[in-house]
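**User:**
Everyone, produce one record:

**Assistant:**
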Amino acid sequence: MDNQQLYGLTKNEIQLLLSLYFGDGCYTKGSLKGEYMISTSCIHKDYLEYKQELISSLKCSKIRYSKNEGYKKNGMIHRWGINSHKSITKLYLSSFEEKLKMLDELGLALWFYDDGSLHKKALFYNLCTHSFTIEEQELILSRLLDFGIKGHLLKENKKDGRVFYYIVVNKCDGAHLVSKIMSKIKIESLKYKLWSSTTIQEWSTLQEEWKSKESGKTFTSFVRAFNLSQRVQKGKKGFSL
């Protein structure tokens, strides 16, 4: 039995629900039948409209514009929700490992659009995963490897003594693959989270050149050497590491 039959949802709906679980969704129990419902919000209406278009069998609310009571409280934000349903409950109660196993490129892209941030100069991604345990984050790292993405955990010490861990995907470890997967979804307001098409092409060309050299160097070492040669050649810009 495939996931669509198991949960009674379309493939797109399953990926949306998974991304909302890992990302910006809030799962809460409804008061009538005790089934779970989902709410989410975003300052970008077109992003919520895209998510809304992925729904076909579930019922959902209209997108509302209201005062933001959370981060940036003085601003306004768009809110949207999916009505409670037994299929949502069933997916929510599945194991963490099962949810990760079901995740495909669509779900991963939505997750990075939700909770990922791109460092514009160094071209790496942070994925906000501090709400998960270390063990769960290790499982996430393992699942990312299935997409060719090698992330690692970064420790952050807050001034108040709290400690958080989140996932970082460096440029040489698959950040270009993250951007490539995300770029399959066209969200105009979130283009700032993507590598430029020119950068992706240059990076892919550089990787092919490294493979063809068969020099025994790691890709990181090869990039450093490439950057040095670019600086020597009339100050050409290379890739920062």
